[in-house]
Write a structure and sequence with these properties.
Elements (H helix, E strand, L loop, with lengths): L3 H28 L3 H20 L4 H16 L6
Length: 80
């Protein structure tokens, strides 16, 4: 189980990421950006950052875990 400090730190960073994304989307609406290209570029950047910080060894497992969690959250699948 994740300790309280880790959960709190994750919660803070989730809010930070949401805030940054909100601002980026606001800028895109002003500048006429492309949300699909932005989403793809963001995924590439996040993947590169994860590899830089954690190494490539756990990337597949990490992406799979995130994907399963999001598929369940959106109701696309009941269980995986």
């Amino acid at each position: 189980m994740i300790c309280d400090n880790s959960e709190q730190a994750m919660s803070v960073e989730i809010e930070r990421a949401k805030s940054l994304l909100d601002e980026a989307m606001r800028q895109m609406s002003i500048d006429g950006g492309d949300l699909r290209f932005f989403s793809a570029a963001l995924l590439v950047a996040a993947t590169r950052l994860h590899i830089e910080l954690e190494g490539p060894e756990n990337l597949e497992r990490t992406i799979t875990k995130i994907g399963v969690r999001e598929l369940k959250r959106t109701g696309a699948v009941a269980t995986c």
